[in-house]
Amino acid sequence: ARSSPSVRVPKPLDIGVLPRVGDFGPGSFLVMEWIDAIPFGVLRSENQQKLGNMVAEMHACSDTVFANVHMGRFGFPLNNWLSLTAQINDWKESWADFFSLRLQRQVDRAYSCPCYR
Fold this sequence. Notes:
Number of helices: 2
Structural class: alpha+beta
Order of helices and strands: EEHEEH
């Protein structure tokens, strides 16, 4: 992992494989270095714009590196997971399309749970 000029990225320290346990797994883990942070500091209003600017700058720094992969589209070459929810990263022509589908899948999954009926 590399930090951009504006965002400090924690260094990966170790990775490993987790065994299958019941219906879950096999899986993997990632251990990152500790970064001191103010608890919920990102939620403070004065930090919201700063965070947005930092993330935009971080993505702009990587844009030239990955331009031949994304070709101006939004998504990712691989799908991944957010906890137990699959994140489908199909390429979309606009950020709004990509993000709205991402959110819609999460909402659909939440409402498919019997606990919300």
